[in-house]
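for the record, two folds in this file. i put them one after another cuz i was lazy. first one right below, seq on top, structure tokens after. the second one comes after a little note so u can tell where it starts
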Amino acid sequence: MAAVSIPLNAVAYQSLSVPLSGHVIRVVLQQRGTGLFASLWCDGAACLVGVLCQDRTWLVRKACYGLPGDFAFVDTEGTDDPDYTGLAGRFVLVYEEGRNV
């Protein structure tokens, strides 16, 4: 399956719910002084909390966390780690079903 791009806004804190792989996935992104951090829920159950987001690094990596796929940020202009100022363009959040299985 091809990766799906998740639309984001260039704000320091955001929470969004998206239907993916037959589940409702909630993504919370928070910019802190040490980087951008993600928390993920699947159908209302917390799966991962406070994961550091880095360029081209999968966030979940293991099926045991209860998510049907995995997420990664991609810098479209280089190899910098994401920060909130580029979330509406430069840094793209992608989802791939079955990636962590």
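(here's the note) second protein begins now
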Amino acid sequence: MSTHKRWILVLMCLLGAISCYIYGLPQGSAVFLGLGMLFEATFWVGVSRRRRKERK
């Protein structure tokens, strides 16, 4: 996967987490809070993951 596509996907996970938190907190919905945590964890894994050198 190209670096550009990976960063777009990581940023979409961050936006998904923020959206779930914004909706889940006032509603008290554990489902949306759980989804927010899942998206946030995916974001942090994507940010901290080191890219492997591709073999030619």
